[in-house]
Every structure is written in structure tokens, then in C-alpha cells.
Amino acid sequence: ATRPVWFPGNPPPAHLDGTLAGDYGFDPLFLGQEPQTLKWYVQAELVHGRFAMLGAAGIILTSIGAKVGLGFPEWYDAGKVVVEKNNIDFPTLLITQLYLMGWAETKRWYDFKNPGSQGDGSFLGFTDEFKGLENGYPGGRFFDFMGLSRGDAAKYKEYKQKEIKNGRLAMIACLGFAAQYAATGKGPLDNLADHLADPNHVNFATNGISIPIA
What is the DSSP letter of 45? Predict the structure, then answer.
């Protein structure tokens, strides 16, 4: 009754009981009423959040590299640069990625359907090294060599909460980076520098896209 919710003063849906990491009772359309569907949404958010954290960090770090003269492309040019400078042609890269990601995603799907089943030695003989505490958190000696998920239960819960919060922030950040590029044709550091130089005249209200100006 006292847990924080996204809409203070309104009770969360019955199917969100506060046990999930990052659960603030947000499901206005009741999309997660069916337990199995809710479990899949949890896994989908985890994976998207983790990729978004990698993406947001990559966008910022490559932009910094471009500014300090390391020759890195801005994120919106990175794909073109890879295709132009790589000795491997794009169709080969694409097919290789599809096979590798398809294999990894298939293993993840099997683990979702039967948690722990992928630590069966089918990948180079690894067994317990791939088994985690719960679905979506691989753990094991291979993925959690520091034992962060196998120590204090309260600390493990805290780590899960922080991860999902950072993942959600990263997803919004990636959306913002894409929107800003569409509006200005520049990367995030250039956008930030322009705004800091003239905050009153360079902001979301003046780019002509966020708030269209006739």
C-alpha cells in the first residue's frame, strides 16, 4: 500500500504487486494481465534496455572520440563508414549477424520457455557456468564471475532495480538522439554545445521540428 506508483493516489493494477524490478504499477492498458505475457514483457524490456545502454554509451563515446581527433564517425555515419572501409562486403556481414544473433536469440527463447535448460553443455560443454538464478539474469560463473547475483539478496534486488531504471533511461536517450539528429542533423555533443552557447535561442522549441513553426 505504501510502495511508490507512477500515478500517486491511484492503486496499481492487481497483476502488478511490486515484486518485479522497476514495478511502479504502470500498465494503463492492462497489457500484462496474462501472467505468461507479463513474463515475456519483462524479458523484452530487459533486453531492449541492455542494448539501449550499450547503444547510448557507444553514441556518446564515439562522439567524444570524433571530437578529440581519434577519427571516429558520429553514430549516424557509423554504418556507412563500416561498409565503405570493411574488407568484408555488407551482405556477408548481414548474413553472419543474422546467423549469430538468431542462434543467441533462439537460445534465449529456449531458456525463457524452460529456465536453466541452456546450461546443458550444448555450447562448448558449458553447464553450470551458464545457469543463473532466474530467467533474464544469466549469472553463473561465466556471466557473473564476481558473484554479484549470489551474495546478499537485498543487494541483488537493488542491482536489478538500478539496471532496469538505467535501461529505461537509455531507451529514452536513444530515442532522443535519433529525434535530435532528425531535427538538427547533428550528434548529441554538438547539440549540447550549441544549446549551452545560446540556451535561449537553441532548444527544443526553436529547432523547427519539435514545435513546428510556420
Answer: H
Q: What is the rounded CA–CA span in Å between residue 210 and residue 191?
A: 14
Q: Is 134 helix (H, G, I), strand (E, B) or coil?
A: strand
Give the angle subtended at the CA of 176 by the CAs of 175 and 181, to the nearest 5°.
100
Region of 124 (left: φ > 0; alpha: ψ -120 to 50; beta: rest) is left
Is pLDDT at 147 greater than 80 in this prediction? no
Task: Dump pLDDT digits (tens) for 40-54.
Answer: 999 999 999 999 999
pTM of the model: 0.86
Which whole-number Å values give the CA distances from 101 to 24, 89, 176, in the listed order? 32, 18, 26
Reduce the secondary structure of 166-178 to three states and give it as a string. Answer: HHHHHHHHHHHHH
Contact between 17 and 159 (Cβ < 8 Å): no
d(CA 146, CA 152): 13
